[in-house]
Specification:
Helices cover 28% and strands 24% of the residues. It is of the alpha+beta class. The protein has a two-stranded parallel sheet with strand order 1-2. A two-stranded antiparallel ribbon has the order 3-4. A two-stranded antiparallel ribbon has the order 5-6. A hairpin with a 5-residue loop joins strand 5 and strand 6.
Length: 104
């Protein structure tokens, strides 16, 4: 997180569940990451990752990492692909590189 802070970035985690289920995610970050509940899949739908995969009997979103600039323009996206796409995520270093590309 210090590297993202130094790059002037703010990290948000959007979890496609109700607030009561999202609390455990928020607790794990010790307040270092803003954690948002998206039970209606509004944000997930907006970025094209809503209801893309099945985990056991639960429908969930495809993982997605998005870098959005301060004007709200999407500058980079990585959306998981494949039947087991919950493991298809960019590394922290890859994401940080994309964030640093936006630095003035």
């Amino acid at each position: 997180m210090p590297q993202f802070d130094a790059a002037g970035a703010q990290v948000f985690l959007v979890v496609p569940h109700e607030r009561c289920r999202v609390k455990s995610w928020a607790d794990q970050s010790d307040g270092k990451v803003v954690t948002l509940a998206d039970p209606g899949f509004w944000a997930s739908s907006l970025y094209g990752v809503a209801f893309q995969m099945r985990i056991h009997t639960d429908t969930s979103n495809t993982p997605g990492t998005f870098v959005i600039d301060k004007k709200g323009i999407l500058r980079w996206a990585h959306v998981g692909v494949g039947p087991k796409n919950w493991n298809d995520r960019p590394s922290v270093e890859q994401t940080l590189t994309r964030v640093k590309e936006l630095a003035p």
